[in-house]
Structures are given as C-alpha cells and as structure tokens.
Design goal:
With 119 residues, the chain is α+β, with helices and mostly antiparallel strands. The chain has one domain. It is built from 3 helices and 4 strands. The protein has a 4-stranded mixed sheet, with helices on both faces. The longest helix has 20 residues. The model has no long low-confidence stretch (mean pLDDT 90). The chain binds zinc ion.
C-alpha cells in the first residue's frame, strides 16, 4: 500500500497535445482537497497554481507548434481534470500550445475543451 508520503502527494500529469509522453510531476496536495467535492474556489486556485508553476518550463522544453495551425506556439492553454479524492490523487492537465495568447487558436482550444470535458 502507498505510504504516508505518497498519499499526501498528487500525481500531476501534463499531457501536451502532440507530445508522445506526458510530463509527470508530484506535488503536495492540501488535505481539504482530498474529497469528492472539494471547496470549488480553493480547488480552482490549486489547479491554476500548478498550471502557472510549470507553464514556462513546459513551454520552453521544446519548440511547440500551435495545436490548430502551423505557427510556432507562444503560449499554453491548460485544461486540468482532477481526481484528487482517489486513493492515489491524480490531476491530468491537457495542454494545447497556441500561436497567440487570446488569439483565434487560443479561443478555439478553450471552446473545444469546454465542449469535451465536464467538471
Ligand atoms: Zn494557431
């Protein structure tokens, strides 16, 4: 069985569109989020904090191409799905590289994820 340390950590899986393998990080997770329906504002803050923490590192790890057009990506759109109440907590962050923050491909990425995922 997982030891105490494992239970207090969440596996944060960053899946970049077009990347062959996910980037895996382990982060300490607040106990109050380890429930089926965590306080929403706090959960969103935690997820946004994780995305912000690794955003530049992921963006700079290779020359990404926009998910929606042939242009070089300059930003990332994060769409995290969380399973923090699991015995081994998991967050899957679907990341779409976009050619312009706030541009058409950015908007298309957000629209697609909003349609495909339910929280
Ligand atoms: Zn684009």
């Amino acid at each position: 069985m997982p030891n105490h340390t494992a239970r207090d950590k969440v596996r944060y899986e960053i899946r970049v569109h077009s990347a062959p393998t996910p980037i895996i990080k382990y982060e300490v997770i607040p106990l109050e989020l380890r429930v089926l329906h965590p306080p929403q504002a706090q959960a969103i803050r935690f997820l946004a904090g994780l995305a912000a923490k690794y955003d530049k590192q992921v963006l700079n790890s290779r020359p990404w191409v926009c998910w929606n057009c042939p242009a070089r990506a300059v930003g990332l759109v994060h769409t995290p799905a969380s399973y923090m109440h699991n015995p081994e907590p998991l967050i899957i962050d679907i990341v779409q590289p976009v050619c312009a923050n706030g541009g058409a491909c950015d908007a298309a990425a957000r629209k697609m994820m909003a349609e495909e995922m339910n929280f």
